[in-house]
Structure to design on (383 residues):
């Protein structure tokens, strides 16, 4: 699977990851070959890139944490709520959220080895609902790892799904501003936790734990967050979990003002905040449930080989099973082979290979170092 900028997507390329529309429904399913009309439409809708199947890792099954049906239900519900820009939600919406989160918890409980994989690619329009659903999934996985009970997972899930609902009151031009926010604009944004709490107060069946997540997801362990500057045990465990999930999904998603970070770099940001911004115990659990090297992505190994990630053994996020597609001596291999890094302890993962470098490798059969514009050629197929 490879992330290809929309300008480089060619007719016939096969979609590798579901593409969702702004109202949460499915636009293109995996396995479909794109037509020139589809590419034009995706460009119009503002998709910066899509994941395509490059034929090298097409047999690898990416184990999604929740079923596609549950994701569409969740996406659609969040979209309805966020696009209505209502100051109060109808009380019956609470039941709909409960139903969808019950399904998410069931999906997660049904699959004991599930790990969160790559985020979906967002447009400005679908960032908000994708983000809400992703934060909910990441929070539930972390909560499960922490040993929370089902009723506690429900509180956590409700809060995580609705954590940014207060943003409906923030002017759209501020939310979508590509540059740095002014002090005044930032103050507007900082109102969203309190506004969110007021918006959900009318929902039937909303518990204190969920309201706490909406209010406290920008609080930080060391007291540096907002709106109340709470620290350590003043912040609920649910909010501590959602804070980690929120930051991780935000930095690994495309935003108006910057491109997405690879998951290993995103996890680096979270790890750097351990014990200061984030609760260490929460991070330990989060780390076990997020694929640092997602299935279907490409990595560089310590011996210079480039490999596709096949799967990650539970509890060993840094030791995935990989398929080597290229070596420094031979360039692209005619017959890729597998390495189980959990058993080959002398070889480690160096980094995720950037998309543009993988594209170049596949097109030319050459391995480049660092993937910068001034690439250093190490080897190629033709000697
Ligand atoms: Fe927020």
């Amino acid at each position: 699977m490879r992330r290809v900028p929309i300008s480089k997507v060619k007719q016939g390329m096969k979609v590798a990851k579901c593409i969702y529309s702004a109202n949460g429904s499915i636009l293109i399913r995996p396995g479909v070959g794109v037509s020139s009309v589809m590419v034009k439409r995706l460009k119009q809708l503002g998709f910066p890139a899509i994941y395509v199947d490059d034929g090298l890792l097409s047999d690898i099954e990416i184990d999604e944490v929740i079923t596609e049906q549950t994701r569409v239900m969740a996406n659609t519900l969040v979209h309805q709520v966020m696009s209505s820009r209502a100051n109060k939600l109808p009380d019956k919406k609470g039941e709909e959220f409960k139903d969808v989160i019950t399904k998410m918890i069931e999906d997660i409980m049904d699959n004991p080895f599930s790990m969160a994989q790559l985020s979906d690619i967002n447009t400005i329009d679908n960032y908000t609902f994708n983000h809400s659903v992703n934060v909910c999934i990441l929070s539930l996985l972390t909560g499960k790892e922490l040993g929370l009970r089902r009723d506690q997972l429900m509180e956590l899930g409700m809060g995580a799904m609705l954590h940014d609902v207060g943003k409906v009151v923030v002017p759209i031009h501020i939310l979508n501003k590509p540059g740095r926010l002014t002090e005044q604009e930032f103050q507007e944004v900082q109102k969203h936790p309190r506004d969110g709490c007021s918006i959900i107060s009318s929902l039937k069946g909303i518990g204190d734990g969920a309201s706490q997540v909406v209010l406290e997801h920008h609080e930080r362990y060391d007291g540096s967050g907002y709106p109340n500057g709470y620290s350590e045990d003043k912040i609920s465990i649910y909010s501590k979990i959602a804070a980690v999930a929120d930051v991780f999904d935000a930095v690994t998603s495309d935003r108006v003002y910057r491109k997405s970070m690879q998951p290993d770099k995103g996890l680096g940001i979270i790890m750097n905040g351990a014990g200061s911004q984030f609760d260490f115990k929460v991070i330990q659990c989060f780390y076990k449930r997020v694929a640092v090297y997602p299935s279907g992505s490409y990595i560089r190994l310590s011996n210079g080989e480039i490999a596709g990630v096949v799967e990650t053994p539970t509890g060993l996020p840094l030791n995935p099973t990989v398929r080597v597609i290229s070596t420094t001596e031979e360039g692209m291999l005619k017959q890729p082979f597998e390495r189980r890094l959990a058993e080959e302890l002398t070889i480690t993962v160096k980094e995720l290979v950037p998309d543009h470098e993988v594209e170049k490798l596949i097109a030319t059969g050459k391995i480049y170092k660092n993937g910068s514009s001034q690439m250093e050629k190490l080897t190629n197929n033709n000697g």
In short: The chain is about 40% helix and 15% strand. Residues 163-164, 192, 217-218 surround fe (ii) ion (CB under 6 Å). The chain has three domains: 2-53, 68-289, 298-379.
